[in-house]
């Protein structure tokens, strides 16, 4: 019995000790494991600024919701709600996110977006906080909701068109008593207008072609201004946005139908589309229906091709320039040990950027000419079919 008593006491006392040490562990350990790595990853994302070509390309050559030359540090947020949705994963890990106090405007804006049936983002309260953090992080803040329709391409191209308009109105405008152009700018602008009149409008518009010169001249100068402005480093071009080129092409499509019906009548316009006369011969009937289907289809295909050609050329050219300009960063991001190769290929990429940049200048001029020329051709064909 004296031996049994000591054996029984150690057997009864350890269980409470085991229970007291084991139970608190699950309550304490998971918290750091679940939160710290995620927060560290978020800070690493913002502090190291690891190069990501897709992010850079999106903020330079795609309709992006902010002017963001350095990823993670927006200069100006154009659409706070959209930007917060795209970058919510990183914005939610800033220290300011926990204490952010959205104003009423941001909260209402977030509620409207979250109420959409297709919305799959964070809750409205969280989205509003992310919008607030993003506005505080931007160099120049964020545009108000009424201006949130801007993306970085349309923003810069709007400035390009404003500058082009001021240039025309201030330096290229003739005085009432002026009969000849004076100065280099007036000579240059009038040379462009004469080029549009003599090489684009008059050969393709048969009746009263000079009436169309202001329209096609404005189209050519606007396209050229937007194309060239997008080649200035850190800026964007609206013609690299399919929505913009589609709108321009849709304008041409409307004028095609309007002028065709105006010049030929609502019935004869559709009849004259077919380049052969109707015949009751079975073979001729089959040919007539085939040509009618082809001609009607071309009324859709022609504007679509206009939009895609201009968009694809601008997007591809700017993307190629960005690839060569950041070639060294791309290599370093894939292998941080290859410093020598990244430096060498980066310098080589900059050398290749020079001829490609010169080529893109030619493409900017050529695409403005092609879009204007084909628009005049298509409108002229509808107004005066050669049958």
Characterization of this structure:
There is one protein chain. The N terminus is likely disordered. This protein is mainly alpha-helical and 387 residues long. It folds into 3 domains: 44 residues, no CATH class; 99 residues, no CATH class; 213 residues, no CATH class. The protein contains 18 helices and 2 strands. The radius of gyration is 32 Å and the shape is globular. The relative contact order is 0.09.
Overall shape: it is globular
> What is the percent of helical residues?
over 70%
Spans where pLDDT lies below 50 across 5 or more residues: 1-13, 16-48
- Which strand-content bin applies to the residues? under 5%
Strand order of the largest sheet: 1-2
Helices, by number, come to: 18
Number of strands: 2
Please state the average pLDDT score.
Answer: 84
Structural class: mainly alpha
Major beta-sheet overview: 2 strands, antiparallel
Name the helix and strand elements from N-terminus to C-terminus, one letter apiece: HHHHHEEHHHHHHHHHHHHH
Roughly how many Å is the radius of gyration?
32 Å
Summarize the structure.
This protein is mainly alpha-helical and 387 residues long.
Task: Outline the secondary-structure elements.
Layout: H1 4-12, H2 14-22, H3 24-28, H4 30-48, H5 53-61, E1 66-67, E2 76-77, H6 80-86, H7 88-91, H8 95-99, H9 104-114, H10 124-137, H11 152-170, H12 183-204, H13 213-229, H14 242-264, H15 268-272, H16 282-325, H17 327-334, H18 339-383
Antiparallel strand pairs: 1-2
Helix pairs in contact: 6-10, 9-10, 11-13, 12-13, 13-18, 14-16, 14-18, 16-18, 17-18
């Amino acid at each position: 019995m004296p031996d049994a008593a000591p054996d029984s006491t150690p057997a009864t006392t350890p269980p409470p000790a085991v229970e007291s040490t084991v139970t608190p562990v699950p309550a304490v350990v998971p918290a750091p494991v679940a939160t710290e790595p995620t927060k560290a990853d978020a800070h690493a994302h913002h502090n190291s600024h690891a190069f990501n070509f897709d992010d850079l390309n999106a903020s330079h050559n795609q309709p992006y919701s902010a002017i963001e030359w350095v990823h993670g540090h927006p200069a100006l947020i154009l659409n706070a709600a959209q930007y917060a949705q795209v970058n919510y994963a990183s914005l939610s890990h800033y220290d300011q996110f926990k204490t952010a106090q959205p104003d009423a405007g941001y909260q209402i804006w977030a509620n409207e977006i979250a109420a959409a049936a297709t919305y799959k983002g964070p809750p409205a309260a969280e989205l509003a906080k992310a919008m607030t953090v993003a506005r505080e992080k931007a160099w120049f803040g964020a545009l108000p909701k009424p201006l949130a329709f801007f993306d970085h391409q349309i923003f810069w191209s709007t400035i390009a068109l404003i500058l082009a308009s001021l240039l025309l109105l201030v330096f290229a405008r003739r005085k009432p008593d002026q009969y000849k152009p004076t100065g280099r700018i007036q000579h240059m602008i009038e040379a462009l207008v004469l080029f549009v009149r003599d090489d684009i409008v008059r050969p393709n518009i048969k009746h009263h072609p000079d009436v169309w010169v202001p329209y096609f001249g404005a189209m050519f100068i606007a396209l050229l201004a937007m194309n060239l402005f997008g080649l200035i480093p850190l800026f964007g071009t609206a013609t690299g946005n399919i929505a913009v080129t589609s709108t321009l092409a849709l304008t041409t499509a409307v004028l095609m139908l309007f002028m065709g019906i105006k010049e030929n009548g609502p019935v004869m316009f559709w009849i004259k589309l077919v380049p052969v006369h109707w015949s009751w011969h079975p073979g001729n009937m089959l040919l007539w229906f085939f040509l009618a289907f082809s001609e009607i289809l071309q009324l859709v295909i022609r504007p679509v091709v206009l939009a895609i050609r201009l968009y694809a050329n601008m997007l591809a050219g700017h993307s190629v320039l960005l690839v060569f300009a950041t070639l060294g960063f791309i290599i370093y991001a894939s292998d941080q040990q290859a410093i020598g190769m990244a430096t060498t290929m980066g310098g080589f990429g900059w050398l290749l950027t020079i001829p490609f940049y010169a080529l893109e200048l030619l493409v900017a001029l050529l695409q403005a000419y092609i879009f204007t020329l084909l628009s005049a051709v298509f409108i002229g064909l509808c107004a005066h079919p050669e049958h």
